Amino acid sequence: xxxxxxxxxxxxxxxxxxxxxxxxxxxxxxxxxxxxxxxxxxxxxxxxxxxxxxxxxxxxxxxxxxxxxxxxxxxxxxxxxxxxxxxxxxxxxxxxxxxxxxxxxxxxxxxxxxxxxxxxxxxxxxxxxxxxxxxxxxxxxxxxxxxxxxx
Length: 151
Prior knowledge:
This protein is of the alpha/beta class. It has five helices and nine strands. The strands form three sheets. Strands 5-4-3-8-9 form a five-stranded mixed β-sheet. The mean pLDDT is 96.
């Protein structure tokens, strides 16, 4: 997926098994963020930044949805532990990460493996991707502010 693309209608199921669709956000902006793993330092910092900036993001017209390949149960614990006010899609079959092109080869400590590249897609009221923040360009500690600065 690149800037100018329309996002798919079916996004996936959240931590409670509810289906999340693009249509749910018609007329609203959406920050759809993909992250590697629940309860890891960078992912926790990013989720907490979005939580802390949630009121400002909502004021700017944004809805927030997170996506990782973790299970619904893992997402439920992550949401509970950090009081996250937004849904997390459990992309356990890796359908969405592959569709958005964020499931890529990664390297860490000399090992090569497949994983989710931290990426945030900012989507307009019509479901069209307007901005993409990827990898090291994502400021996990100040992610809410980073999104608001792109306005």
